[in-house]
């Protein structure tokens, strides 16, 4: 049973004899969109780009693309996987309509990004309010802050697309910057912001980090200055003065990678051995060969924001690793900056290293469309990034796509019951009714899959349709063979090959077929030929329609 509610139908699931349902995951996606009112919010946000005579809603088209990407789609044409299941996905636009809409949105990409982000923010706040005590913002404080991870990634491109350029790792493609809400080790991360950049964009560009932090804080919905109840974690690429100054102005907590100066060996020699404390693993146990110490007083931080602390970590490389030039005394030195004033150094260092969970969020995003930019224009691929952000848990409830999943050629192949004969072959829907003028005549345009299945063992009826050739019509034996004698006639009577396989269903001693002499297998006589031609003509005249 199907009910129309919102942009997607509300399907009522019932138990049956079918052991598997191919659209169970897609059904969860559409129901989540309907419950969270994401379809209504996105439709309202994109209403300005709907023409006066448009049939399909722009918000519905973008959501169809997001659902398609969540199911494994990799390009715009993969939306055809949804078009064959109108009972679940409703009306789906054609490929030309989808392409035209993406082009129209790309012409006003700045306004479209702002509108879609407003819709995502509205839906996210509604979902977090409905979550209650399970919300990411429930009970947040300076000790238990809402964590936002910022990190960039490289996406390889194998063609000359607009904006694609050589990367700093000797590759070619794009260099997007992402921001994620971290829900802990047991929860998934929500995509807060996704900014597409050219491949030659710098890894530590302060303007890009300022922009994505602004978007992520706006998506959190805690105001422009949320305070220490929000923690922003960035790797060494975010350790610039402009980025840290922005975080200080927003009065949020931060834990950002810090680049050590050139005179680090001299600084290391001045640190007393008693200042080093053992570092911890993620489980709270001491880590062998790793220590942490604060070096804030040993650095000149007058140009940096007030209240910033710098914590250094030393660790001996694992066995077999080769030392680098910047390693000092056999130790590998790293540092990070934070404005958190309370807590042990080991706990603050573990909190910073937990930023590595962001790498798993990016990996899942690449499994959900971020690893492939199918469009040619740079602004069009920015629209694709919006679709990927919607597919990656837009409201914190949509399940993530399975890694390595590829689009299936037919989404509803397992939803139909088996054939009447019990064979688990694919069941096809019934054919449409024929024209009244064709009633009583054999169906000429019905595909073979739509015919009624006969019980096993039933002989096949004789096909006497008029559109076939007379050679196909004749099913009775003829006085002469219609085919040339094959090579088996020459080998009849020879002993079987030692490696020949005998069918177990047939006896080994099969009587040979009667053969005709060579003079009888030649061309037929004139009498037999005239008799056969007259019989064919009589059959043809009997089956010919009166209009002919």
Provide structural commentary.
This protein is α+β, with helices and mostly antiparallel strands and 548 residues long. It has two domains: 1-137 and 374-413, no CATH class; 140-373, Transposase Inhibitor Protein From Tn5, Chain A, domain 1, CATH 3.90.350. 31% of the residues lie in helices and 13% in strands. The chain has 16 helices and 14 strands. It has helices at residues 24-35, 38-45, 58-70, 80-83, 86-89, 95-106, 109-131, 206-220, 241-249, 264-270, 345-353, 357-370, 378-391, 470-473, 488-491, 526-543; strands at residues 2-5, 8-11, 146-152, 155-156, 165-166, 172-174, 177-182, 190-195, 230-234, 253-257, 277-280, 286-294, 309-315, 332-338. The strands form three sheets. It has a nine-stranded mixed β-sheet with strand order 8-7-3-9-10-14-13-12-11, with helices on both faces. A three-stranded antiparallel β-sheet has the order 4-6-5, with no helix packed on it. It has a two-stranded antiparallel sheet with strand order 1-2. A hairpin with a 5-residue loop joins strand 11 and strand 12 (286-294). Helix 3 (58-70) crosses helix 13 (378-391) and helix 6 crosses helix 13 (378-391). The longest helix has 23 residues, at 109-131. The protein starts with a strand and ends in a 5-residue tail after the last helix. Mean pLDDT is 77; it is low at 394-452, 462-492, 494-511 and 516-524.
